[in-house]
Design goal:
Layout lengths: L11 H14 L13 E8 L2 E9 L4 H9 L10 E5 L2 E2 L17 E6 L4 H15 L4 H6 L7 H5 L12 H8 L41 E6 L7 H4 L5 E7 L4 E7 L2 E4 L21 H8 L1 H10 L19 E2 L3 H4 L20 H9 L6 H30 L14 E4 L2 E4 L9 H20 L7 E2 L3 E6 L2 E7 L20 E3 L9 H16 L5 E4 L5 E4 L6 E4 L5 E4 L19 E3 L3 H5 L3 H9 L6 H5 L14 H25 L3 H6 L4 H13 L21 E3 L3 H32 L7 H10 L7 H10 L7 H24 L7 H13 L5 H14 L17 H16 L9 H8 L3 H12 L1 E4 L18 E4 L2 E4 L5 H16 L2 H19 L4 H16 L3 H18 L5 H16 L3 H18 L5 H13 L2 H19 L4 H17 L2 H18 L5 H27 L5 E9 L1 H11 L10 H32 L8 H6 L2 H15 L1 H7 L11 E9 L12 H11 L9 H5 L54
Helix pairs in contact: 1-31, 6-33, 8-9, 11-12, 12-31, 18-20, 21-23, 23-24, 24-27, 24-29, 25-27, 30-31, 30-32, 31-32, 32-33, 33-34, 34-35, 35-36, 36-37, 36-41, 37-38, 38-39, 39-40, 40-46, 42-44
Keywords: Cytoplasm
Pfam families: CLU (PF13236), eIF3_p135 (PF12807), TPR_10 (PF13374)
Protein name: Clustered mitochondria protein homolog
């Protein structure tokens, strides 16, 4: 990174981040260099705080230093302070470098400033926020995802992430090995084959005690507001405090601070109490009043600094609530009124956001402060949107317009509306699609980097109780006035759009420049359309977009919901645009045939017949995803390159065409550009027209040819989804065990491929047509579940529109019962609800006359099926009922319930639900705890942190671990500065950092960082998110490396429980978890997990897959530990067969498998001989057992979890050998030529050197050039080679004695002894000389390392030998494939 700062540059949050990072990565981390101004320590005194040292930067302003100080634990919650140096107050806007005499060790004093009425309320608000510091159990009550890691470690959460980070370092560097007698056997519901899915186990009771309450009550006094004569004497507020000791006090807020007055509930006496001091900080006064408050406040004040207690920028919904919501309700001191925002003080969200965006970005420090400000503004905006949705939908806000079809509301500085349901876009579904696409369009323009001057309004959409609202900050108004009705639109601020007119101005030219740059970055083509008045209007966006000049002088772009190009698969021919002009009538007579031909251009042969596309959709706003646009451009560029190469090869080859002075090369490029649909004839340039296939849009006749080309290109892009992307996605799921596990991960995986969710039906068809349909059953299950839940959500939204607020919980429970229990009858729940309502005094309860109460399971299922068929084009619908669908695809009702709650915002009571009862409703009204708004918002950029993280990923893929480590340290520090690590990308960064530390042999550091990654994932993504499950799996490996076997088992069991809940047992990732559990557990339980893993891997990947082969070896290893060498031989034979088919006989993995088979064969022979010698009458014999060492177990877990991967082939060694042979041949040839020339010279027969020698100069140059080329070609392979690690002895086994009763075994004559002896003789001919001891096994080298492997990266603790010596990260530097979408510059511009 070019500009960097020192790590002591922000307040409490920054100090916490720095300490954690330095504790993790050493004193010099992060590797962020100093800017022009130095950083130095000073001492802080005054304002009642103890003297402490504080690091300041010379380029700070005084205000920056003060803001940082106010967020420090030593100062908070004090506010309204100023800084003074040497008795002189400092100007807040002055730079610290301009303060004379300020040097390291200087003393800065905090000076208490008088309060105003507003600053006093702000101070109280900060105190209340500190007092509300919630414990882990409060997260469920508030609907936030909790962190549950400490329930596994049985330690205080503060020990894993204290503000200084030292406990992380201590617990990571000094992990205590588990006691041998500590039993950690899995419960029955986690054993393979169990069908129990207890929800109570998902959120176990925290071992951390609840945060004790500091006060009983804190509210405005009954004597507030102060009377007039007391206002004139400076009284701001009267506050009533009830301490935990039961003491009741009235407190006065005044300019000097706070004091206790003499008022009582019966009498008003504002005079100060005799024993009360005047405290500038409210908490100081409370500490003076109540010793219990002082003790609790001191204990709890550090909770807000922990990553597992700090509030996340955005709420992560938790679908499960506390078991008893009544008991968990707490006093939040809301009666103090500091949260109430006066109507006349509603924030201007647009101005706040634009002011943050306009902050300078010249240095790294300025960019970090800008991004942090953007995140804070957007976070506050989203919270207000959530509150506004509740206020509007619950009827507490009146509309500001008179349109009942599209009511608009103002709340907290927000403009909220549903939007009109236009029939042009498809009614209600079109309205929702327009709101969603508007948010995506705003996100697209927000992400444009380096494009200053084009602004968008703060935008979010929120779904609450079946209603979708759009929320935006208030627009700043248009530049100019509307005093003259005849004033042109340009002068009133409308500069761009079909209604902007044709007037020119400098502002109009500027906004056109900005839009042209944005169109280039977004791959959008400039085009011309006809305005309603017939004027030709050039556009860089969709026809709906408008460019405005606001009253604040900024350029804004609005209505960008059709920015993305249309999806031609759902644009039926004949419903497109209109071509107008003078030439239209002349061409109409003979253009019918040409039009028919152009309509079919771009579609593959028999496309309509094979896939049923194009077709209509319930709404007309189907657009392509930006990911698909980039992937398709890359695909076209690859096609273009191939066409040019083929054309040049047909005309004499590339070298000849390039050196010739004719037009063959140019003609080849022109032909390729025309073939792929490039906009330019001389370079590859691919752009899309967003207004193609748009009904109601008129184009001039001059755009006819260009429009046909764009429509053809869009048809190709749409067909590309069906013919390439969906099969590629299915193939990925077929080969990987990291396939999606729930709806969120499925959505992310499809979007990464550029596939919209409306193509789920086509994914189903692709799976059904695959010859590996059975191996894709987990994907089919997931897709069908997603189709069902998305259709159910749309029906549920309509269902809620007719439900009154008092009946909401009953109606939601009734809907869920009808959905999940097909035999459910509404009568039972109605009578039950009436009885409960009468007991509680709520009236008669549900009535049969209400529309929602008459809904039946059959009627609901028919509505869901109809929606699924219309949306996803399912050929066989969903079946006759949910039970049939569940049985057919082996769905889990508890998983369906989770998906429903996450999609709708419903929160259920934490208890175990049973859906098999015919007499009782499985879900009652008391089980519906709350309904939360589901907000979709703009993601603010973390530019520098993301760049550092992407650079680290690139280095890691190349095997440059040291460079990756430095970049990851930078990224972790920068994420901490911007978002306090509470960001999804920060979670990914910490996970990769932990993995990198483990690969470098730093297991303590890996454990420490991974603990933090787990907590961040639980808080930001969700406690049961698939990525959280993966983080628990990785944590198990790292803690196992430190000897904490029991903790590793708990992490794996936790991951298994979560995955069983969200998907079920029939998933490839379960095989990974079961393999690891089989390695850690002992006895028969280990065998159950290993056999289940083998069954799953065999069914999903086949018998010859690498995953299956590794599991076969683990089963063989487990059987050896039990003394069953016959069974072990059979499984190892299967593993050897798979390794031989995957690699070859000389591959290290194959050789190691052979040697291990020889070892167990010899051991089996010895056991057989000992049994024979003991005689048939012996009742008990001692059998020697091979037991894997702890190093072996760790190394096998590393392979199973994918931290390292087995190299399929040693490409670097193969290329090196070929290069040596080629170099030797060239040298020999050149030496022969030199000898011949020398002989001719000696004979007086000189002649000119050969042409090739003249071109190259000399033979030495040829060799040198060949060497350089070889170095360039193999650079990435050599980099990859550095990540090749020698895994420890997976065949290194310890021999144990085991007693078995011979009576239960087969007779010696029935054992296969002859075959074992023959194999023993075969093995005796090899190099392996295994014996009964550990040394014999360790001396069996699977593969001796080559001298070229001396630079291998040190991995986990190693032993002498291994069954998999050569492992490698299989992702090479150039393995992105044709569908890679990063760093595309084929359009003549770098991506922004």
């Amino acid at each position: 990174m070019k500009d960097k700062v020192r790590k002591g540059a922000a307040g409490r949050t920054q100090a916490k981040t720095n300490d954690v990072v330095s504790a993790t990565h050493g004193k010099d981390s992060p590797a962020v260099k100093q800017e022009d101004y130095s950083s130095f320590p000073v001492k802080i005194q005054g304002a009642g705080v103890e003297t402490f040292e504080f690091q300041i930067c010379g380029f700070w302003r005084v205000q920056d230093a003060l803001t940082t100080l106010l967020s420090r634990d030593e100062v908070a919650p004090r506010t309204n302070l100023s800084l003074a140096f040497a008795g002189v107050p400092l100007d807040p806007l002055a730079g610290l470098q301009n303060v004379k005499g300020l040097k390291p060790g200087a003393i800065l004093r905090l000076v208490e400033e008088p309060f105003t009425a507003r600053s006093a309320r702000q101070h109280l608000a900060q105190v209340v926020e500190l007092l509300r510091a919630s414990g882990p159990q409060d997260a469920l009550r508030e609907g936030r995802s909790p962190s549950l890691l400490e329930t596994l470690t049985h330690a205080q959460t503060s020990e894993t992430s204290l503000p200084n980070g030292k406990s992380l370092k201590r617990s990571a560097s000094n992990p205590k090995p588990d006691a041998a007698n500590n039993d950690c056997s899995p419960p029955e519901y986690l054993l393979p084959g169990s069908s129990d899915r207890p929800l109570m186990a998902l959120l176990p009771h925290s071992s951390q005690p609840q945060v004790p309450s500091s006060l009983r009550d804190l509210s405005l006094s009954s004597w507030d507001p102060p009377p007039g004569h007391r206002k004139l004497q400076g009284d701001f507020l009267y506050i009533t405090v009830v301490t935990t000791e039961g003491q009741r006090c009235d407190v006065t807020s005044c300019p000097k601070g706070f004091f206790v007055n003499r008022s009582t509930p019966e009498a008003f006496d504002p005079r100060p109490s005799q024993s009360s001091p005047v405290c500038h900080c409210f908490t100081d006064l409370l500490c003076h009043i109540s010793p219990a408050f002082k003790h609790a406040f001191t204990k709890n004040r550090h909770h807000t600094s922990q990553v597992d207690m700090m509030p996340t920028p955005y709420q992560t919904l938790c679908w499960l609530g506390p078991p008893c919501a009544t008991r968990t309700h707490k006093n939040t001191f809301s009666r103090l009124g500091v949260d109430d925002q006066p109507a006349n003080q509603a924030p201007d969200w647009n101005e706040e956001l634009q002011a943050a965006r306009d902050r300078p970005q010249t240095s790294l420090e300025e960019r970090l402060q800008r991004e942090r400000a953007l995140l804070q503004v957007n976070s506050a905006f989203v919270r207000t949107v959530s509150q506004g949705a509740e206020t509007v939908v619950e009827g507490f806000a009146d509309p500001v317009n008179g349109n009942p079809e599209d009511p608009a509301f103002l709340f907290g500085g927000l403009f909220m509306s549903q939007g009109a349901a236009s029939a042009v876009f498809g009614g209600e579904r079109g309205r929702r699609a327009a709101q969603r696409l508007e948010l995506k369009g705003v996100q697209l323009y927000t992400d444009l980097q380096g494009l200053q001057g084009l602004h968008t309004l703060p935008t979010a959409i929120v779904d609450y109780r079946g209603v979708r609202l759009s929320a935006q900050g208030l627009a700043p108004g248009l530049e100019g006035t509307e005093q003259e009705e005849g004033t042109a639109p340009v002068s009133r601020g409308l500069l761009y759009g079909v209604n902007a007119g044709l007037q020119e101005s400098p502002h109009r030219r500027r906004i056109l420049e900005l839009l042209a740059l944005s169109a280039k970055a977004l791959s959008l083509q400039k085009h011309v359309v006809l305005a309603p008045n017939g004027h030709r209007v050039p556009l860089f966006t969709s026809v709906d977009a408008q460019g405005l000049l606001g009253a604040d002088g900024r350029f804004y772009i609005l209505d960008v919901f059709r920015t993305f190009p249309p999806d031609a698969n759902y644009c039926p021919e004949g419903s497109g645009v209109t071509i107008c002009g003078e030439e239209t009538q002349e061409e109409s007579s003979n253009g019918a045939e040409e039009k028919t031909r152009s309509v079919n251009e771009g579609w593959p042969l028999n496309y309509q017949k094979d896939f049923g596309l194009p077709k209509s959709f319930p709404h007309s706003l189907c657009r392509l995803r930006p990911e698909l646009m980039q992937i398709f451009i890359q695909y076209k560029h690859t096609q273009f390159t191939q066409l040019v190469k083929e054309e040049l090869d047909n005309n004499g080859g590339f070298e000849e065409c390039a050196t010739a002075c004719d037009s063959r090369a140019t003609d080849a490029v022109r032909a390729a550009c025309k073939e792929v649909g490039s906009l330019s004839e001389i370079i590859f340039e691919m752009r899309f027209c967003p207004n193609a296939f748009s009904p109601g849009v008129s184009f001039p006749s001059s755009e006819s040819e260009s429009l046909q080309m764009h429509e053809k290109l869009l048809r190709e892009a749409a067909a590309f989804i069906i013919t390439h992307q969906i099969p590629a996605f299915v193939e990925f799921c077929l080969q990987s065990n990291e396939t999606p596990t729930d709806g969120a991960s499925l959505k992310g995986a499809l979007h990464e491929k550029g596939i919209n969710l409306r193509y789920l039906g086509h994914v189903v068809k692709t799976i059904n047509q695959s010859k590996h349909k059975e191996r894709l059953r987990h994907l089919m299950r997931l897709v069908m579940s997603e189709i069902l839940m998305r259709s159910t959500r749309r029906v549920f939204n309509s269902f809620l529109q007719g439900v009154d607020m008092p009946c909401l919980a009953t109606a939601v429970s009734h809907f869920l019962c009808c959905l999940l229990v097909p035999h459910f009858t509404a009568t039972a729940v109605g009578e039950d609800t009436k009885k409960k309502s009468r007991r509680r005094g709520r009236g008669p309860g549900a009535s049969e006359s209400t529309p929602w109460s008459t809904l039946t399971a059959t009627e609901l299922w028919n509505q869901v099926c109809q929606d699924a068929v219309e949306t996803y084009s399912l050929s066989d619908s969903l079946g006759s009922g949910l039970n049939q669908l569940v049985e057919r695809f082996r769905l889990q009702k508890i998983s369906l319930l989770r998906e429903f709650c996450l999609k709708t915002g419903v929160q259920l009571r934490l208890r175990d639900y049973s859906f098999d009862s015919h007499s009782k409703a499985p879900i009652g009204p008391d089980d519906i705890i709350n309904i939360f708004p589901v907000v979709k918002h703009i993601q603010m950029p973390t530019t520098d942190a993301s760049k550092a993280f992407r650079a680290a990923q690139a280095y890691f893929e190349k095997g440059l671990l040291e460079s990756a480590h430095e970049q990851l340290k930078d990224a972790a520090y920068l994420y901490g500065r911007v978002c306090d690590d509470l960001h999804p990308e920060a979670c990914y960064c910490h996970s990769l950092l932990a993995k990198l530390a483990f690969l470098q042999g730093k297991t303590a550091e890996a454990r420490s960082v991974q603990l933090r990654a787990v907590v961040i994932s639980e808080r930001v993504l969700g406690f049961d998110h698939p990525f959280t499950i993966h983080q628990y799996t990785l944590l198990a490996v790292y803690v196992c490396a430190g000897g904490e076997t029991n903790l590793a088992q708990k992490c794996l069991l936790r991951a298994r429980l979560l995955l069983l809940t969200i998907h079920g047992e029939d998933h490839p990732y379960i095989a990974r978890l079961d393999s690891c559990l089989g390695l850690l557990l002992k006895g028969d339980q280990a065998g159950k997990y290993l056999k289940n893993a083998l069954r799953l891997n065999t069914s999903f990947f086949g018998p010859t897959n690498l995953h299956t082969a590794l599991t076969q070896h683990l089963v063989s290893q487990w059987l050896c530990s039990k003394g069953d060498y016959r069974g072990a031989m059979n499984h190892e034979k299967e593993a050897l067969t798979a390794f031989t088919s995957l690699f070859d006989e000389d591959h290290p993995q194959t050789r190691c498998s052979k040697e291990f088979l020889c070892t167990i064969t010899k051991q089996a022979v010895q056991v057989e001989r000992s049994l024979r010698q003991a005689g048939a009458n012996a009742t008990e014999q001692t059998v020697e057992c091979l037991t894997p060492t702890s190093e072996t177990v760790l190394e096998q877990m590393v392979l199973i979890t994918g931290i390292r991967k087995i190299a399929v082939s040693d490409k670097f060694q193969e290329y090196k050998q070929r290069h040596k042979e080629l170099k030797a041949a060239v040298a020999k040839e050149l030496a022969s030529k030199a000898a011949n020339e020398l002989f001719e010279v000696m004979n007086g027969q000189e002649k000119e050197l050969p042409q090739d020698a003249q071109e190259t100069g000399s033979g030495e140059k040829v060799l040198n050039r060949g060497s350089l080329v070889a170095e360039e070609i193999t650079e990435s392979q050599r980099a990859e080679e550095t990540s090749v690690n020698t895994v420890g002895p997976a065949n290194g086994h310890m021999v144990e004695e085991k007693s078995e009763v011979d009576g239960g075994e087969a007779e010696p004559s029935q054992r296969v002894v002859l075959d074992a002896e023959v194999k023993t003789e075969d093995c005796a001919d090899g190099d392996s000389t295994a014996t009964n001891g550990v040394e014999a096994t360790d001396e069996m080298p699977c593969d001796q390392p080559d001298e070229t492997k001396t630079d291998e990266v040190t991995g986990s603790p190693k032993s002498k030998g291994t069954w998999a010596d050569v492992v490698s990260n299989m992702t090479a530097a150039g393995e992105s494939g044709s569908n890679g979408v990063e760093n595309i510059s084929v359009n003549g511009t770098d991506q922004v």
